[in-house]
Each structure stands twice: as C-alpha cells, then as structure tokens.
C-alpha cells in the first residue's frame, strides 16, 4: 500500500498554498491513482477494505485523514459526496467514486469489482 497524507500532496496540487475547496481536493486526489482509499488509521472497516485490495494484489494509494491537518475538511466533503453518514472508508477506482465499505463489498460479492480494477489498470490478471 502506498500511504500518503493529503498535506504532502497539497503542495503539489495547489502550488503550496494549501487553499482550495475540499471537494476539489478529493476529486484531484481520487484521480491520482488507479485505486484511492480515504481512510482513518484507527477504523476497523478502513483496515478491512485495505486488506481486501491488498489481498487481491492491488496496491491502493491510501490517504489517512486522521494524520492530515485538513483531514476533517476532506472527511466532511466525502460525507457530502456519499449523501451523509459515515465518510470512511471511501474508495475511488479509476477516479470514479465506488463508495463506502458496503458498496465495495457488494461489488466484490457480485463479481463487478475485478472488472473495475482491470479497467482502471490496478489489476492485470
């Protein structure tokens, strides 16, 4: 897994200003890798979704929001994207919002997750 705090990437994404709409930041970060997970390091559901992808041979980019000074802003933006409720974990594949743990697991069980990962270039087999 590739872990990155948003604060490191904000200097390159925003030219070092750190300003900008949290929703725009989410969209930019989510499109930066084939699989992006917004997570909180102490969340058991976040851990489970990260293990799911790693177990499939996928190397997601993980943004640990509790280790980021602007993580709460991003978490609120994610919650708005999901229509309220818990905001983590949130998974993007190929820059597209997949959703929270329930949507990821439903996709995995129905057999649609692997084709999404292949299409995004995150999985080759």
How is this fold's topology laid out?
Blueprint: E1 2-3, H1 6-13, H2 22-30, E2 35-39, H3 44-55, E3 61-64, H4 71-81, E4 90-93, E5 96-99, H5 101-110, H6 113-120
Parallel strand pairs: 1-3, 2-3
Antiparallel strand pairs: 2-4, 4-5
Keywords: Cytoplasm, Redox-active center
Family: Belongs to the glutaredoxin family. CC-type subfamily.
Organism: Sesamum indicum (Oriental sesame)
What's the mean pLDDT score? 86
Distance between the termini: 18 Å
What is the helical fraction, as a range of percent? 40-55%
Query: What percentage of the residues does DSSP assign to strands (E)?
Result: 15-25%
Quickly count the domains: 1
Name the CATH superfamily assignment. Glutaredoxin
CATH fold assignment: Glutaredoxin
Q: What is the β-strand count?
A: 5
Radius of gyration: 14 Å
State the name of the first-level CATH class.
Alpha Beta
Q: Which term fits the overall shape?
A: globular
Lateral strand order in the biggest sheet = 1-3-2-4-5
Output the number of helix runs: 6
Q: H/E order of the elements? A: EHHEHEHEEHH
Largest sheet: 5 strands, mixed
Sheet/helix structural class = alpha/beta
